[in-house]
Design a protein that fits this description.
mainly beta
Length: 464
């Protein structure tokens, strides 16, 4: 009963002299001992749009069962994978209706999202169909553990009710009303697929309370057309949150001057705005940069706790300033002693050891912590220690410790940059704009040279 599978294929060596009448012949029949079964449904046609499936999807059918198995019940499995080696295979439940096997379209969609995300793009699915026989209360994997009555691939898409574009841009008085110039005002987004992370953000400085805005998707920029531009339902709406509309969109208005962080959720078609009263970043003019704010390291505001944290280059002494100014109300210096700040910043903040530092400043509490960085490393799933901070790969610094490099095999794994063998100081997120405690960096495999460069205003991570 556990006989081996005998495949029978018919090859067409010569084409017909005349074009035959189009027909829909039965798919190839596969024999396994005394059971004859064939693949069926979309897996044989090569495409499946789950939107059209709506319920049970046929995958296989029993053609015949030999008389010696008259008391046997034949059933199937369905292995579903995004990789041809089935290393990420998901077993989808199969139901039988007589001699026909089905999988549920909801189960297919769940598996699709788990392996491919929510993108509407067609994805290649690899499948294989094992056969099972139950006779006299005994279950058998028909043909052995390596036998499948059918296996192959097909193209699959999932339902999408909303198209989320890859990029969005802020139009308005504070940026530009010219579509061809709007690429300079692109919303930030994570490295994730836009259907897995539909949230985009942009920070803008608004000069007065008569600044209006709309949002242009990438399609509007590419076509230089206002047909797909987004806005609000009522012209001049100054609400800090609301619904984005694409039919007869009107211009929203910023309620007052200031710095705003705009967040749009393109799955929910909503927007929200946050008006900042604190500086978005602080400059660190001092001995390292010739007391020049524009040449200094800049420390971004960390929204979660209101602190300013990051890696900076410093030597001798420095101050903290809100932009390129020495105005008393925008300058912080040493307070009563190390660890305390004062405003205005009459005293300079001392640097015990010149070079790369990690600073944690709180201008509300007038406190700071300055930590000298003696070690920079790359840590991730590829390292021998597998995310153990004690086992990160040390990077090599240049002469003034502003640039650190490491060459090795990233193996396609996720990773981060960390300092002093501690998770208290780390960068993740985008390599062009790394953030403190950001998400894991991914998308690189093979041998690369990774560079952490802190010589500019903000740190940059390069992978070459």
């Amino acid at each position: 009963m556990m006989g081996a599978l005998a495949f029978t294929f018919v090859a067409c060596e010569d084409g017909p002299s005349e074009v035959p009448v189009q027909s829909n012949p039965q798919g190839p029949v596969f024999e396994a001992g005394n059971v004859v079964a064939s693949a069926a449904g979309p897996v044989t046609t090569g495409t499946l749009n789950i939107t059209d499936a709506m319920g049970n999807v046929e995958i296989a059918t029993v053609q015949s069962v030999d008389s010696i198995l008259t008391d046997a019940t034949v059933s199937f499995g369905f292995d579903y994978a995004s990789k041809s080696d089935f290393s990420d295979a998901i077993e989808i439940p199969v139901t039988m209706d007589g001699t026909t096997a089905y999988v549920n379209s909801d189960d297919l969609e769940t598996a699709h999202i788990a392996l491919f995300g929510k993108s509407p793009k067609a994805q290649t699915v690899y499948y294989r169909i094992p056969v099972y026989v139950e006779q006299n209360g005994v279950d058998y994997r028909w043909g052995g553990i390596d036998y499948y009555c059918a296996e192959g691939s097909y193209s699959e898409t999932i339902p999408v009710n909303l198209v989320i574009e890859d990029a969005y841009y802020l139009l308005g008085n504070a940026t530009t009303w010219t579509l061809s110039e709007a690429t300079a005002y692109k919303f930030d987004h994570s490295d994730a697929n836009v259907y897995d992370d539909p949230v985009f953000t942009y920070t803008v400085e608004v000069p007065d309370d008569q600044c209006y805005w709309k949002i242009a998707p990438q399609s509007a920029i590419d076509s230089d057309s206002w047909d797909t531009v987004l806005g609000v339902a009522t012209d001049g709406d100054a609400s800090l949150e609301g619904i984005l509309v694409d039919e007869n969109p009107q211009a929203g208005r910023f309620p007052e001057a200031g710095i705003y962080k705009i967040t749009i959720n393109m799955e929910e078609m909503t927007y929200s705005m946050k008006l900042y009263t604190a500086p978005m970043y602080l400059c660190t003019p001092g001995g390292y940069n010739g007391w020049d704010q524009t040449a200094s390291s800049w420390i971004p505001l960390r929204e979660s706790d209101g602190t300013y944290q990051g890696a900076i280059m410093a030597s001798g002494e420095f101050k903290l300033t809100d932009g390129n100014t020495w105005d008393d109300d925008k300058t912080w210096g040493l307070g009563d002693g190390v660890g305390s700040l004062s405003q205005p910043g009459t005293g300079n903040i001392p640097v015990e050891t010149d070079g790369l530092q990690w600073i944690n400043a709180n201008i509300d509490n007038l406190t700071y912590v300055l930590t000298h960085i003696t070690s920079v490393g790359i840590v991730g799933g590829f390292s021998d220690a597998n995310w153990s901070i004690d086992g990160y790969y040390e990077m090599t610094p240049n002469a003034d410790y502003s640039v650190w490099t490491w060459t090795g095999d990233l193996e396609g794994a996720e990773w981060k940059i960390a300092f002093n063998n501690s998770w208290s100081y780390n960068y993740g997120g985008s390599v062009d704009n790394p953030t403190f405690d950001g998400s894991n960096i991914s998308g690189y495999s093979g041998t690369h040279t990774v560079t952490f460069d802190c010589s500019g205003n903000y740190p940059v991570i390069k992978v070459e």
